[in-house]
Write a structure and sequence with these properties.
Blueprint: E1 14-16, E2 23-26, H1 29-36, H2 40-51, E3 55-58, E4 63-67, H3 72-87, E5 97-102, E6 105-110, E7 116-118, H4 125-189
Helix pairs in contact: 2-3, 2-4
This protein binds zinc ion.
Residues 89, 91-92, 94, 110, 112-113, 115 line the site of zinc ion.
Length: 197
């Protein structure tokens, strides 16, 4: 169970740049998202939809950026809103939910009490959640396809090795018979005649 306190978004919040390029960096986004069992890209995006700001999540550098200068309080109150709307079970209030997506509707399914409720589909974030889900499914399919291809290639290679071995065996057998045939022919043509005594 998670405890919601200020340690999620703490004093490490960094404001970088200036003027139009000013942005707020959330350094502990991955930790935060993991503790909520949510995608860091999704949590980052939520701040953007609420604050009307552009956001970026870069998985390689684990960097969450919200354009503009925002205070810890701003982000914290929005984090609570996110948890309330998308993480907590509406039945038992535990943060034990996962998404189940069916016909473009996102359901929040609770692992603790079994409740299944649709999330607020009017919220802008639902578009992002659906897009992420589609991408995940596509990536999974692509990975499976690639695996199939590799396995097929390996199989082809194996059968080629086997065919080569068989070919070699037949050539060897054929040569052996040819040689013995020639030998027997030679022997019958020039029979060794032992002098009789
Ligand atoms: Zn529940």
């Amino acid at each position: 169970m998670i405890v919601l306190d200020s340690s999620f978004i703490n004093a490490k919040l960094q404001v970088e740049g200036r003027g139009n390029g000013i942005k707020t960096v959330i350094p502990n986004m991955l930790l935060l998202a993991n503790s909520l069992h949510r995608d860091p890209a999704e949590v980052t995006k939520f701040f953007g939809t609420e604050l009307g700001a552009q956001t970026t999540w870069t998985a390689e550098t684990e960097r969450a950026v919200v354009n503009g200068a925002h205070t810890t309080q701003d982000l914290q109150s929005n984090l609570f809103k996110y948890v309330e709307k998308f993480v907590l079970c509406p039945g038992c209030r535990l943060p034990e939910t996962i998404y189940k997506i069916k016909s473009e509707t996102i359901y929040s399914v609770c692992a603790a009490c079994g409740a299944k409720e649709p999330v607020d589909m009017a919220h802008k974030l639902t578009g992002t959640i659906l897009a992420h889900d589609k991408k995940r499914k596509k990536d999974k399919k692509d990975a499976e396809k690639k695996e199939d291809k590799t396995a097929k290639k390996k199989g082809d290679k194996k059968s080629k090795v086997r065919a080569d071995a068989e070919h070699f065996y037949y050539v060897l057998l054929f040569s052996f018979f040819s040689v013995s045939l020639s030998l027997s022919f030679l022997c019958s043509s020039f029979p060794l005649s032992l002098p009789r005594t």
